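Chapter review: from sequence to fold.
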Amino acid sequence: MKKHLFAIVLFLMMSFFLVACDEELPPIDTELELTQITFIFEDNLMIDYGSEFNVLSNVIAVGDDAVDYSDQVTYTSTATISAAHMLDTTVSGAVTITYTVTVGDVVGQRTRTLTVREDDYVEPAPEWAGFNMTVVNGENDVTITYADTPAMWWNNNSQLVVEDFDGTKETISFTFTGVAGHEYLFKIEQTGGVYKEQPIVADGTEQTISISLSSLSETERASLNLIVFFVKTLDADGTVVIKDWVYGEPIVVEEPEWVGYNFTVVETETDATFTYPATPANWWENNAQLAILDFDGTKNSVDFTFTGVSGHEYVFKIEKQGTGINVEQSIVADGTEQTITIDLSGLSVADRDGLNLIVLFVKTEGAEGSVVVKDWVYGEPIVVENPVWVGYNFTVVETDTDVTLTYPATPANWWENNAQLAVVNFDGTKTAITFTFTGVATHEYVFKIEGPGGINVEQPIVADGTEQTVTVDLSSMTEVQRDSLNLIIVFVKTEGAAGSVVVKDWMYVIPEPMWIGYNFTAVETETDVTLTYPATPANWWENNAQLVLLEFDGTKNSVVFTFTGVATHEYLFKIEGPGGVNKEQAIVADGTEQTVTLDLSLMTDVQRESLNLIVVFVKTEGAAGSVVVKDWMYGEPIIPT
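The token string follows.
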């Protein structure tokens, strides 16, 4: 008995429309008449010589009566196919298979073309591809030319696909010759977000750089599938030659040892004893330091257990050298064994990943003695509660949706009076944030967001007494810098001003997606985009323009494109999502404004909700020209047939 799954879905959809209408409609006949059978399969497949291939695998036949007829598919072919439907793949060349389903007087048929590769076929080695860089691949190296490196340097890069990375290897090495003084960044990553990177400044000679992968698991290393090369030096022009990458020598990591600066250090297997002379006024110059290898950024606290001199104040500090990223905690010893925890929850995972130094100080001037510190350990996870505003000469009253900041007469050194809000896990992919506030007319406010190492952006605005919005643009920062942002501050700049300002919860600004051309030039206006394309190659699919979709409405089952193209040029409009979900439609332009509709009615709501990319291609080989595409729209509802 046939399963009428599609018919049931259709019935439910149409029932929805009936309920939404006021007038009485006749009952719907859910027994649809069969007039046509459609085949669904992947065509033009390349099959490896000697591999197994079942010609009925993933072949679907569906009737317009919403019945699945896949179990009635038969086929004919000049190729040799076994009774178990296995294709003889020991014969190279093109294979044609014609599939047929016959139900009563209705006959459905579709022909499929496959190609069995030659026995000696070797998959071409991946090659470097440049994005705003020019790439010339050689036999054993690649020459990469770059120009005018922008502030958003990460948008310009070159990439190399990695196949079958050996997860047992813990390092990779690159040998390169670059432009002296230019800073490069070598990165290896996988699609799930696992990556390692290493910067280096070129000296104009052949250099070698290694990336340590030892902090990744073997499974994570085995999943690495992409190498990316960047130039970080702003406005840099030049060329770099990179030899083929190689696995590096296994890294033998020596256990770091404490180093004393005006401290005497004696280490055992489990602790270190630090003896310090009389502490000077500039106490920070006397300390002991311990290098950290591969700090686990998923941990957000560290513990130190120590026994110090009663009454002496000690400072435990952990930092990322050269960046200003650090957290410290002081404690007064009581002469017994004590434990101190450094809370790292205010740092991002990326910042914690880079922590590489522990420093111990004695703050009590004139103090001398010894302190015994056991090996440091990761602490218990710190659960971050919702941060609260803290006022410095401001009075703070919070509700669920906003905060009222009341300020006395603003002094000349206005920056000393402010209100602060800790930021937890800032999303570095976001390039702007917005504040909605109501202040006192003519009072000037400053909204600021900052991170460790002096990273900050601020935006002043004069209030007009109504609800206003101010945006803080973070696009000049790198994603890593934005990841580290951890504090919002509100100031009043108008000297002598007193009053109150109500600030609603801050929000990320989601930028409108933009068309990106791959061998296409894209010029956008408010209502359309002009896509200019050079002579279309035989492998036309490599040249295209793409637009990211945000929050596609899965209840809509069609999209419409209005375009004006070059007469006789064939265009292909495609919409897709993860897991191979896609729909495409080809159309030949006639030189006038035309409309093409993509029918998504055979997708589920969930599949449509996952749609996240539009792609436009030109299929006509040798064609060059421009096509103007207006903003896409949802189409009229389509009833599946």
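Two observations follow directly from the output. The mean pLDDT is 87. The helical segments are 5-20, 218-222, 349-353, 479-483, 605-609.
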